[in-house]
Amino acid sequence: MSSSRCRIPLLGAVMLFASGCFGDYAPAEEGSQSTATPTSGVSSTTNLAGTDASSSGSPLLCEHVDLLILTDVSVSMAPFANGIVDVLLALGPEIEDTLAGVGTYRLALAYNAPPIVNQGAFSVPDEGQGCTQIGALVRGQDSCVEAFDGRPFLTDADDLGSGLTCLAEGVISGGVDAAYERPRILDSMLAILEADEDPALAACNEGFHQSPDPLVVIVIADADDESDATVLEAVTRAVSTQDTASLRNIGVFVIGADASQCPSEADNECGAQPACRVQEFVDRGLINTGLEGNVRRFNICRSLEDNVADVAASLLDQLSAVVVEACR
Fold first, then answer.
1. Is 199 within 8 Å of 230 (Cβ atoms)?
2. How many whole angstroms separate alpha carbon 129 and alpha carbon 277?
């Protein structure tokens, strides 16, 4: 696949790890102003366990982790797309190295609106009603997804680079619907967490996430959330999907504008707006319940930087830190 062709399909899937292109900043307490100070992370020079667990005999950090890349694909994301793709391509096999401290993992891509399933999409279950409802995972096309048996998610046995390209291609080539102009990030997250309660969605997502397995949600957005659920309702519903009385098995990695501006709707220096409702979800569900370590953030403006390798390394640091906390 040529690099020019690769960039188009990657655009959607890219918005996920690409999000790692942002400068980190510390979480804010609810009702207070946060300051853009660095957040410590696990060095990307080591895997999550700090050593190769499989070869050294060291215990695994955790047996299994699910990673969900939940990205806003509205038109306003266009200025950041190329930078996000570049970062994704720069990560290469280092993503797998970063996850070497866990036993197995699954990685899926979802959008902030119902995905458009291209006619060439592979293995769409009849009971899934086309898999075009909000919360349905992105599906690839038959030309590439046969390599991972038509699953709407990747596993540790798959090549993440080509796999992400394949998943994104299944949607991007299908066009963009006006529904993408309403970024329902929280609604999408809740639908995926509650998929077992919806037969059609369960069929589409094939049991992607099963609590109490740790789940790391990577949110990439340049605008505020417009979900139907209130933030309090979103937190309550999310907690109810877990086998614990909290979200301690959930990690959230927000790639967006500096949330210290919340509740202001003003753009930051690169034209992005903070996702204040996502910030409130994080405050209420994680930070204010003693789970602030499960949260990391990157400034989406970093996707515009020239030093792609530096941005990618920073992303891996923060992703590692979130997974470590979610696995505890």
1. no
2. 30
Q: How far apart are CA 319 and CA 300, in angstroms?
A: 15
Determine the number of helices (DSSP H) and then strands (DSSP E) in the chain: 11, 6
Quote the radius of gyration of the chain (alpha carbons, Å).
18
- Residue 91's nearest CA partner among 301, 253, 309, 324 is 309
Is 294 exposed, middle or buried, given 0-12, 13-18 or 19+ CB atoms closer than 10 A?
buried
Element (H, E) at 27: none
Selection from 238, 240, 218, 248 nearest residue 67 by Cα: 218
Place of tokens 């789940």: 215
The three-state secondary structure class of 154 is strand
Look up the pTM and report it.
0.81
Cα 275 to Cα 261: distance, rounded to the nearest angstrom: 10
pLDDT digit string (tens) for 220-256? 888 889 999 999 999 999 999 998 899 999 999 998 8
**Looking at the domain 3-25+60-327, which fold is it?**
Rossmann fold (3.40.50)
Cβ atoms 323, 216 nearer than 8 A: yes
As given in the structure block, the two tokens for residue 202 are 């369960």
Domain locations in the chain as residue ranges: 3-25+60-327
